[in-house]
Design a protein that fits this description.
The complex is a heterodimer.
Chain A: E1 4-15, E2 18-29, E3 33-37, H1 44-52, E4 57-66, E5 69-70, H2 76-81, E6 84-87, E7 94-98, H3 99-113, H4 121-134, H5 140-143, E8 145-146, H6 152-166, E9 170-174, H7 182-196, E10 202-207, E11 220-225, E12 228-233, H8 236-250
Parallel strand pairs in A: 3-10, 3-11, 6-9, 9-10
Antiparallel strand pairs in A: 1-2, 1-4, 4-5, 7-8, 11-12
Helix pairs in contact in A: 4-6, 6-7
Chain B: H1 22-27, E1 46-50, E2 53-54, E3 64-68, E4 84-90, E5 99-118, E6 123-144, E7 149-156, E8 162-171, E9 176-183, E10 188-197, E11 203-212, E12 217-226, E13 232-241, E14 246-255, E15 263-272, E16 278-287, E17 293-301, H2 305-313, H3 318-334, H4 340-355
Parallel strand pairs in B: 1-5, 4-5, 5-6, 6-7, 6-8, 7-9, 8-10, 9-11, 10-12, 11-13, 12-14, 13-15, 14-16, 15-17
Antiparallel strand pairs in B: 1-2, 3-4
Helix pairs in contact in B: 2-3, 3-4
Classes of the chains: A alpha/beta, B mainly beta.
Amino acid sequence: MTYIMLKIENLHAEVDGKPILKGLSLTVNAGEVHAIMGPNGAGKSTLGYVLGGRPGYEVTEGSVMFDGQDLLALEPHERAAAGLFLGFQYPVEIPGVSNVQFLREALNAQRKGRGEAALSGAEFLKLARAQADALAMPQDMLKRPVNVGFSGGEKKRNEMVQMGIIGPRLAILDETDSGLDIDALRVVGDGINRIMRGEDKAVLLITHYQRLLDYVKPDFVHVLADGRIARSGGAELAHELEREGYGAVAA
Amino acid sequence: MTTLVLPARNEEAWRWADLSRLPALAEAAPTAIRPEPRWIGLGGPHLVFVDGVFDAAASDPGRVALGAVDAATGHPLGRLATGEGWTLTLAADAVADPVEIVHIATGGASHLPARIALADDAVAHVVETFIGAGWSNRLTAISLGRSARLMRSVRLLQDSGFVSLRDEVRVGEGASHVAIMLGAGGADSRIDAHIDCIGEAAFAEMGGALLTRGKQRQEAAVVVRHSEPSGQSRQIWRAVAADASTASLAARVEVARDAQKTDGEQSLRGLLLQRSATVNLKPELEIFADDVKCAHGATVGELDARALFYLESRGIEPARARALLTRAFVADALDRIGEEKVRETFAADADAWLAGL
């Protein structure tokens, strides 16, 4: 049975009064991995931020339904509690707040939002350590301030550890592959498959390059150009893009 | 009663102070409203002063002496604190249990002198808490002998009124003076200190966090003077101002001609929670020696919108996200408190302030 996880219809959005998304429509079913590819400036990151609810990203038209509810009516923290996870292209450094404190607060806030009991410190640490191990992230990085002094690759790995701990239903991953060397790319790709493959989950991978898609095989590939989906296809479309460039394929 | 003579705003050291409420507070009568003392519970001597008067029944002063105090000053507020007060004197090599003092104000004005005198190698820890309402004015004279160490933690938690502190400190050779202040109540305040590093390789640290809201005004004005070589000083202050409040920090380091190899650090940072609030920062250096290191920084800003969105996108509620970031902002100033129980209590007081926003 097909279950619609995310349904975006005719989405228009602007930043600082400048239209970026211009009528984007996309449907993601549960159990599917979709890749959004496109040239710089096409609106890929804007799509991620609009879905995450970042202030300053104004929706001017259209609708987004997530898991049967109006996503755009929810605050960013309510979207998270509803099961949405936004993986950042540039994860933010937060001095003075440790990774464990941040993640425990985040997870328990989400659990509270869903009417579930909070995890104790011990229960949480067990979960956090298991996820860090699975992503080959040293344990001591859990105690360090959020992303402070982390390399680009470590920050992306930390995003995946967060995703593993939180266990979302829909992950929107914005350029999660950027800044990763080939080994880290494999670890992160394996992480996405391990955490997000499932009948009741879905992934929207926003990426500029095809190489992450070697590890996380998409069911569908969409080309985003000038604020809307210019073309959709299967996994083979990513290879075609890599070979021929966005100009030729999206035209 | 003598007429209250207060410094004028046109004096540079008082430019951000608003003492206009003090004459009325000085005339106000004490009330019967006496809040319960707030103890941290350090197991050592503990003293309660109610409107500046020692409450023997509620206290166990241990080796703290009550009576006339050997402290005098020309400071315009400090000089009001005459008469009986408390004195902690430690002989050479003595180590005292932590002393805890709670100052309860019931609505009137009180002026209390104190003295802490540590002989060579003595070690003491003093924690003071101010609660209630009214004007609490304090003068504390501190002298540290060779290699003596004093850790002083003060939290200002009065609901209303004014707390004015004047510390006059002499730090001897190799001695260490650390004073950490937390302003997390509803009263206005003036934390005022002059720290003289009179011995070689003396260490002086004074800092903390001032949290203001409503129309509250809190300020710290600290001068550290290095007279001898190889001294070190740290002034790490954080100011958080909400609503239409004002928090001001003035930190000054003076390095005399003979005080070569002085290593001074000043870090003054302000955080505006609303644009209607004000933070004033004034880092000052006056250096007459030529081989010194004095790092200084002063910045005022708002909470990082990107960090807020990052926290919220992981499910943390907006108010909690703001509190987490604000708490992180003041953390490094309060982390200097050595005693874990005191540090955690001060952090909890800061949390309680944030939770009430």
